[in-house]
Prior knowledge:
There is one protein chain. The protein is mostly helical. Helix content is 76%, strand content 0%. It has 8 helices and no strands. The protein has helices spanning 2-26, 33-47, 58-68, 74-86, 93-132, 137-161, 171-184, 189-201.
Amino acid sequence: MIFRSRSVEIASVMQSIANALAELMSGTQTLGWLDLWQLFFHFALLSFLAIGGAIATVPDMHRVVVGEWGWLTDAQFNGSVALAQAAPGPNVLFVAVIAFNAGGLPGVVAALVGTLLPTTLLSLGTARWAEQRRNTLGVQAFIQGLAPLTIGMLASSGWVLTEPTRDQWTCLPLVGLTMWLMVRTKISPLWLIAGGALMGLMGWI
Length: 205
């Protein structure tokens, strides 16, 4: 009886592990090879537009992952970005969280390889050329021209992330206050994220 009881316990544990691994692999969707290739290819294209960091590509990621493909809801997408931004680690971490929630580990691999591989190869290929010509007029003009483009793309990302709460009167004033604090003070963004989370828990936004 003891042996049978122990066998049942082991089988139950193994089943729980198998279920957890299955959930880990699948995410909210079961993505086929065509879906994974589509994810890889689109994120690879977006990586060339990641001026100012991968976060600048959030609007188009939202357009395809939520709007066109329907793999995540607005709340799931925004929650993925918020969780990744609050966690320690590189800025590109939010790509992995979005992809994991959409397609599990296969989605993470497809999205991260697509995001990192093309621009890494491009950077390695052009680094020496750019270093030798960094003081030329053309290179300086290119660098200065990226500044307004970066600001616009980041502003667009922020606008997309306000979508779930944009109909509440507190949303835009809080966005304005947050921008003012970021520009005018040295408060860590983590405190602002924590404040936003607290307000959400209290039902203010």
